[in-house]
Every structure is written in C-alpha cells, then in structure tokens.
C-alpha cells in the first residue's frame, strides 16, 4: 500500500494538510488568547457597573462580582481620573502587563506561545479600551492558569479538527487520484504487458483513450513506438525467411556453378583466339559467383567472413567491372571512364572491393538506362597519408529524396523502381569490414557521387 502511487499520495496529502493546519494553529491560538483577555475586560467592566449604580456594595457582592469576572482588581479611567472600582487580595505581585488597545500581530503571537509553554502560575495586568466608549481605559489583574488551560483546550480541539479534515481530504484526493491517474496508468501497464507477450500481434497495440492530456500524450507515444516495433519485427521475420530461402538457393547455385567452373577449365584449352580472350573473364565471373554463394551461406549463419586483405591494383579491379558493364550497356550511349593514378595499389579484399565498385557502377548504369538519356560513369581515386579514396560518379538524374533517407538500409534504400536496396547495404557493410566507410558525397540534377574511404592504418605491409 505504501509503495503504490495512490498510497504515497494519501500520506503526503495528510502530512501537507497537517502542516497547513499547524500554520493556521499559531495565529488561531494567539487570536483566542486575545479574545479571552478581552472577554475578561468586558466582564470586569460589567461588574464595575454595579458599583457605579450604587457607591456602597457589601464585600460579599464585590467578591462575587470579581469571581464571575475571574479577576482580582478592576481599574476604570473615566474623565482622566483613574479609579479602583473593585479589588481583592492578590496572591503574588504582578509579573507582566499586556496592553490590548493596539497590539501588533507578531506581539500577540509571541505572547500567546510564551503563555502556552509557560507552566508557572503568574499574575498579569491586562489593559484595554472599555466597550461602547464607557471610559478611557480599563485594566484588570488576573491569574494565568485559567488562560493557559483554555488555550490548551482550544489548541487540542483545533488539532483534532485538523486531523479529521486532513483524513477526509486525503481520502477524497486518494479516490480522485485512483480514478484520474492510477487506473489509467495501470491500463497503460496492462497494454504494455499484453503487447510484450505477443509484439507481432497488431491487436495488442494500445489505443489512446485517456482524458488527462499528459497521459494521452504518453499513450500516443507508446502507440507510435509499438507500431514501429511491430513493423520492424515483421520486416525482420520476412528477412529471416528470405535469408533461409537465399541460403537454400545459394547452396544449389554453388553446386551448379562449380560444375560450370569445370567446363570453363576445358574451354580455356581451346585454340580459338576469341575463346582464349573471353575465357579468363568467364572463369573470373564464375569464380566470383561461387565465392558469392559461399559468402551468402556464411552470412546466413551470421558468419560473414572478414576481408582477406592484400595489395590490390585498383585499375585491374575497375577494368574487370567495366568489362562486365560494357556487355550490359550494349549499344546504349553510356560512356565509362576512369581517373586512377598509374600503379595505385591499395590494401583490401579484391573480391569484396570488386563487389562494392560493381554495385555502385551497376546501380548508376541501371538508373541511367531507365532514364534513356546520354550520360557518363567515372571511377576516380587518390590517396593521402591516412587513407585511400575511391569516387564513383555519374551524370545521371540524381537520387530521389526517399532513397536518400534510407540509403544504406536493406529493402528501404532502393534507388531504381523495383530495386531491393540490398546492393548499397551490402556494399556499406563490406567497406565497414575494412574499417572504412561508404558515403554519399552529393546528388542532384547534375549527377551522383559516392566515395569509398579505406584507411591505411598502422598494419605492416603485406
């Protein structure tokens, strides 16, 4: 109970109401003391009227009047003459004098607190103004025991009443908090627990219904999060299913390509000049396809092989990419160019680097051919003391804004219509495996440029 929100709110409300009542208690007791003393002055004034009516009263009547007024002496000043109206013996000398004609609030509070905590019996003089202007001044002497007991009784009544008010107020607030806060929060928690049990089930997504603005905002934020998470889980499930299918296809395709590789070994023995010229490229293509199938199988096992770093002649890799692309271009007016320093050698996995550059060039070629306008694709490279840089640029139509938002995300960053968006995602992952980065330098109506950065690092030359 005490660890719940409503329970703690109940306790805090009770404490705060009691604190408020205590702050009210002090001035209330001070006001009660003032009223008590003023009532004694009024009683004394009424008792003195008997003497004004009859100059001679017997001692018994005088004593009775003083007992009823709860005072020892009554002094009345009328017409600048100070007159002792009623008197009786006092048990001890006067200890203090209090003037109630124009008291300050702080002074009343201070005197009341001192009297409340002072247990010693004292005799005090109280001065005030007569009621109904029946003189200039009236003063009485009285004991403090009756005053203190009356103040204690009054204070206890105030505290009991405060406690009752605190409990009632806290209970009502407890019910209000449970209805307006605790119950909706428990509803949100219930939705969260239900959704956690089956996050793929869209029926378990929370439907905002709270009337409190802050709770409704929390429900809407939770709803948005659950929708995104459900979509992501469904996409991951589809990717897992696709991965299984690709692994099966890659396994059988690897076997087929291995058989084809055996045939190409025989083709290389042909004496035909054209066959001799084309056979090495065919062998390389089939070898790459076999390696790709093996890598796909390894990726399906979450075992993407690390790059096998070696010194690579970039111009040779680019030439292999361009040779394959020229066959795909055919008669279309698309030119391929390179600007690579002679003898530039970098450290990378040749097969993975080929796949990355091939993906970038092929993506550019497919977009340009689909557009049907003359264009150019170029590969340039340079280096500095820390890294090698390869830029793949084209003069095509540029990337659409939607593709730029999810450029390197699988199945979301497709550049052309019908594309899967896997090429750039795979290329980015392969370059990250080299410790480098693949980034979009710029895109627009004049074309698109991607840059590959491969760090040189501190590794010794191979």
TrEMBL record:
GO MF terms held by the record: ATP binding; phosphorelay sensor kinase activity
Top-level taxonomic group: Bacteria
Residue ranges occupied by any Histidine kinase domain in the UniProt entry: 248-458
CDD domains documented for this protein: HATPase (cd00075)
EC number(s) given by UniProt: 2.7.13.3
Keyword Metal-binding: no
UniProt-listed InterPro entries: HATPase_C_sf, HATPase_dom, His_kinase_dom, HisK_dim/P_dom, HisK_dim/P_sf, Sig_transdc_His_kin-like_C
Keyword set includes Lipid biosynthesis: no
UniProt-recorded name of the protein: histidine kinase
Organism for this UniProt entry: Shimia litoralis
Lineage: Bacteria, Pseudomonadati, Pseudomonadota, Alphaproteobacteria, Rhodobacterales
């Amino acid at each position: 109970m005490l660890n719940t929100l409503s329970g703690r709110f109940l306790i805090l409300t009770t404490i705060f109401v009691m604190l408020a009542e205590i702050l009210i208690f002090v001035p209330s007791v001070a006001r009660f003391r003032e009223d008590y003393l003023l009532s004694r002055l009024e009683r004394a004034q009424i008792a003195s009227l008997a003497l004004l009516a009859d100059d001679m009263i017997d001692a018994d009547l005088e004593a009775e009047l003083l007992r009823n007024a709860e005072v020892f002496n009554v002094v009345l000043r009328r017409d600048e003459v100070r007159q002792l109206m009623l008197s009786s013996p006092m048990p001890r000398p006067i200890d203090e004098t209090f003037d109630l004609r124009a008291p300050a609030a702080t002074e009343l509070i201070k005197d009341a607190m001192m009297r409340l905590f002072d247990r010693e019996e004292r005799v005090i003089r109280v001065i005030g103004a007569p009621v109904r202007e029946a003189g200039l001044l009236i003063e009485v002497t009285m004991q403090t025991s009756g005053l203190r007991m009356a103040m204690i009784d009054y204070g206890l009544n105030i505290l009991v009443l405060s406690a009752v008010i605190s409990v009632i107020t806290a209970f009502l607030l407890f019910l209000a908090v449970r209805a307006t806060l605790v119950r909706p929060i428990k509803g949100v928690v219930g939705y969260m627990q239900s959704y956690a049990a089956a996050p793929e089930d869209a029926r378990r997504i929370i439907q905002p219904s709270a009337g409190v603005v802050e709770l409704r905002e929390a429900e809407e934020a939770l709803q948005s999060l659950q929708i995104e998470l459900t979509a992501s889980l469904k996409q991951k499930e589809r990717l897992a299913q696709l991965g299984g299918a690709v692994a099966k296809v890659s396994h059988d395709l690897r076997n087929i390509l291995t058989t084809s590789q055996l045939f190409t070994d025989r083709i290389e023995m042909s004496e035909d000049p054209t066959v001799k010229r084309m056979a090495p490229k065919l062998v390389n293509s089939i070898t790459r396809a076999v390696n790709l199938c093996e890598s796909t199988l390894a990726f399906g096992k979450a075992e993407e092989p690390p790059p096998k770093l070696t010194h690579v002649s970039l111009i040779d890799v680019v030439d292999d990419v361009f040779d394959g692309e020229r066959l795909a271009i055919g008669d279309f007016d698309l030119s391929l160019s390179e600007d690579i320093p002679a003898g530039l050698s970098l450290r990378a996995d040749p097969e993975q680097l080929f796949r990355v550059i091939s993906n970038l060039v092929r993506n550019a070629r497919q977009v340009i051919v689909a557009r049907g306008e003359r264009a150019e694709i170029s590969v340039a490279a340079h280096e500095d003391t820390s890294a090698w840089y390869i830029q793949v640029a084209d003069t095509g139509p540029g990337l659409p804004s939607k593709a730029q938002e999810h450029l390197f995300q699988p199945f979301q960053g497709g550049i052309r219509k019908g594309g899967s968006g896997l090429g750039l995602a795979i290329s980015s992952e392969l370059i990250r495996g080299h410790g480098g980065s693949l980034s979009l330098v710029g895109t627009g109506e004049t074309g698109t440029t991607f840059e590959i950065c491969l760090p040189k690092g501190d590794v010794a030359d191979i």
